Amino acid sequence: MRKLLMLPGPTNVPDRVLEAMRKPMINHRGPEFHKLHENIVENLKYVFQTKNDVYALTCSGTGGVECAIFNVIDPGDKVIMPIGGVFSERMAEEVKSVGGSVVEIPIAWGKAVKVEQVEEALNKNEDAKAVALVYNETSTGVTTRDLRKIGDLTYRRGVLLIVDAISILGGDELKVDDWHIDICVSGSQKCLACPPGLALISVSERAWKVMEKRKTRQSFYFDLLACKRFYEERKETPFTPAVSLYYALDEALRMLREEGLEKRIERHRACASALYKAFEALGLSLLADPEARSNTVIAINYPEGVDDAKFRGILRDEYGIHIAGGMGKLRGKIFRIGSMGTVTKDDVLVTVESIALTLNKLGLKASVEDAVRAAKEAFM
Amino acid sequence: MRKLLMLPGPTNVPDRVLEAMRKPMINHRGPEFHKLHENIVENLKYVFQTKNDVYALTCSGTGGVECAIFNVIDPGDKVIMPIGGVFSERMAEEVKSVGGSVVEIPIAWGKAVKVEQVEEALNKNEDAKAVALVYNETSTGVTTRDLRKIGDLTYRRGVLLIVDAISILGGDELKVDDWHIDICVSGSQKCLACPPGLALISVSERAWKVMEKRKTRQSFYFDLLACKRFYEERKETPFTPAVSLYYALDEALRMLREEGLEKRIERHRACASALYKAFEALGLSLLADPEARSNTVIAINYPEGVDDAKFRGILRDEYGIHIAGGMGKLRGKIFRIGSMGTVTKDDVLVTVESIALTLNKLGLKASVEDAVRAAKEAFM
């Protein structure tokens, strides 16, 4: 049976990218690695739409977010954080771990923060050092559409903007320079369709200035100034990188350039839009506010009486389609579809059909034809 | 030209291991991953010779050492540390980063700490929480042969023993349980012949007790209690692991089991021994004390007038053999050979021959025949 990952990461990885990992090992302190590393950095700048410095860290996306926090947040620093899902909660935990003081903007799960809320928090906390937020909340399928406006605001106010863009980079609009994002973090295994194991991070001039003034270091492994020094001096990383994953990322980025960033974003939009239409046709309710719906993670409320394990088990074992359940307080209450990376119209249609069939098997009336038709129409 | 990595990591990776990474991506929260993860953990316990809990972390070896420190060292804790190379210096930096107080036992680079020195330091510092040391100092080619005795000592004294065994696990004797090592850290890309990107870490009951009593958490990403909880409850990792590298590690560990740990260690010993004999025949001086010489990393002093970049450049570009230079204050003064992972008699002989030929090219008298004969005799 064909296995189709429709997870919010990791995604299906194209053969070309898997094949790249078969290349023989090289010295990470030698000329071959230097060239590989430079290619990756140049192509990452294209994806991040930035002239800032960009690094690929050997760790998961969560490690990348912690790296951002370790490098600019000192004990006692005030950080304004909209919190409305597992990943914004996690980011707040990371800020607290280093002794940072979190000024929470509570957001209902399924809604996105508005620029006015951030402005109000900034007005009340003029000593805030940073605003830190999750651009695409993977646990709720919510995208912060006001990010550009928030970036304008924090830039004017001289406050750092730290963004977790793990599940969205490459799948939706994200302009690091135009939007004044000081530290932007992403992951290899989402819209870039690369295996997991690398976090990607961009760092602005303003963020470097903050780091250069610091007297302490919170982590030896996650030291961005060391990354900068090693890259500038010798195109190397401070510590041994996951060379095979660098090969994979290099190939994944080449594929992205061949497709073009605009086209890739458009493909993600089209697939997400078809999924939303199909679920509406099935009469299912969506977790995210219509204006905040993500183009990469689709979160659907379970109809009364549908068991999460059974539903996802049938989809996986009988149709070969892997989707995710809810996280945190939404565990058992929603299911989530990652529409990312290599996702195509065919993937969407087979997913929609299989979900409708699974709902029927579980005793719910769901019109397979209506759902598939709605998805097909959305693609037209 | 065939490329032969004789680096102290990463090493040549066998085809079987490279091939394993081509497998399709899977859900890291699904049954296939659970089985893969269990296999890895069981085989790691065999290699570490332990019944303790063992984890594969997505990070480099340095990240693994920092994880150990983050989890058991609190601000103000006294840690006794023999320091005699780049990696013990690095470990001390990590202890200081979290506010730990380092009681240094200074060791000349090329020598190993003796149990008596550790005992003396423990007598003078009865409030020490831990002894932390590098079992095999990759920057000097020195192995701490007293590790077993040090482990007996710290166990009796109720002091934690933290060991960086990155460049030695699988290549020399290392008995985590018999030697009472509380936290032992290794890396995927050394004697296990797997690509880099995973740190391996074992945790004793005593270490868990220390962690369970702590009130603070130094890192969210490097949280061993979370690793324990996720593994025990669902055979998962707290954050997305580098699945492709898990495939590789799984295969690398299967190969190690097929060979057998004893035989693999014996192979490393035989290869190192032949290299030492050959360099002595060439009249080169070795950095490490005879009784502390490593079976995995061989450090050789450059003869007067040999330029590091030229020497290693010829070896690499004309013979396809990649070796390492010196680190820290030994940069330019020594070269280092990693004799690890898949290393064979043929690898050793071609390395010895090529080094002798390179020395000749650089105007030094070196008998290729004598060197190769000495190495061959050592294998007999």
Feature tags:
2 domains, Aspartate Aminotransferase, domain 1, 16% strand, Aspartate Aminotransferase, domain 2, 380 residues, alpha/beta, 13 helices, homodimer, 3-stranded antiparallel β-sheet
- How many β strands of chain A by DSSP? 14
- Enter the CATH topology name of the largest domain in chain A: Aspartate Aminotransferase, domain 2
Q: Decide which structural class fits the backbone of chain A.
A: alpha/beta
Through-space gap between termini of chain A: 29 Å
| Helix percent band of chain A | 40-55%
Question: Number of folding domains of chain A?
Answer: 2
Write the layout of secondary structure elements.
The structure is a homodimer of 380-residue chains.
Chain A: E1 4-5, H1 15-20, H2 31-48, E2 53-58, H3 61-72, E3 78-83, H4 86-97, E4 101-106, H5 115-124, E5 130-134, E6 136-137, E7 142-143, H6 147-157, E8 160-164, E9 183-187, E10 198-203, H7 205-212, H8 224-234, H9 243-259, H10 261-281, E11 297-301, H11 308-319, E12 321-322, E13 324-325, E14 334-338, H12 345-361, H13 368-379
Parallel strand pairs in A: 1-12, 3-4, 3-5, 5-8, 8-9
Antiparallel strand pairs in A: 2-10, 6-7, 9-10, 11-14, 13-14
Helix pairs in contact in A: 2-9, 3-4, 10-12, 10-13, 11-12, 12-13
Structure description:
The structure is a homodimer of 380-residue chains. With 380 residues, the first copy, chain A, is an alpha/beta fold. Chain A folds into two domains: 124 residues, Aspartate Aminotransferase, domain 1 (Alpha-Beta Complex); 244 residues, Aspartate Aminotransferase, domain 2 (3-Layer(aba) Sandwich). The first copy, chain A, contains 13 helices and 14 strands. In chain A, the strands form four sheets. The first copy, chain A, has a seven-stranded mixed β-sheet, with helices on both faces. Chain A has a three-stranded antiparallel β-sheet with strand order 11-14-13, covered by helices on one side. In chain A, β3, α4 and β4 form a beta-alpha-beta unit. In chain A, α2 packs across α9 and α10 packs antiparallel against α13. The longest helix of chain A is centred in the last third of the chain and has 21 residues. The two termini of chain A are 29 Å apart. The model of chain A has no long low-confidence stretch (mean pLDDT 97).
